[in-house]
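User: Hi! I'm working on a homework problem where we have to compare a predicted structure to a textbook description. Could you give me the structure for the chain below?
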Amino acid sequence: MDIAGVCGKAITMGKFKIMKKVIFLFIILAAITEGCKKYPEGPWISFHSAKDRLFGTHTLTKYTVNGVDSLSLFNDSMPNNFYFYYEDVYSKNVLIISGYRNDGKGCIINCTWELSANNTILNITSSGGNSGGTVGTGPFGNNIKPSWAILKLKKTDIVMKTTYNGKEYLIELE
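Assistant: Happy to help. Predicted structure tokens:
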């Protein structure tokens, strides 16, 4: 065998060893980042804080009670526009649930909120509202303080669940 053949094998073996190390590093990195994922449904990584992803206007697109679609029932007594913001005067995070119910009546529910448990729980406290009638369903209504487990927290897609009066509620906001 000539010297070029020996050098060619040495170069090929060197590249193979480097590729093995690179693949091994990718496997380790994937295992570490998957274990560190905060929300079960995502996102995998975000450059925005949890509050920044909550702030803004969202529409309730999914509401289930024990796995049964109940969005129409929700809209019978509640509007489906959720507006999360920071109120400077009182230094509080505020949630306004507003819009029209299925009966055409306008409705506004005022709440405060805070994140806890390393931003994986959203605690909401309702402080009443203006509806022209009875307002509330499940974990939404006057003096109800649900703690929502955040399953997904993206700027355009939020999924949360809670248990209230022995029933599991799941909501999705877009």
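For your comparison, note the following. The two ends are 68 Å apart (CA to CA). The chain has two domains: 1-36, 50-173. Good luck with the assignment!
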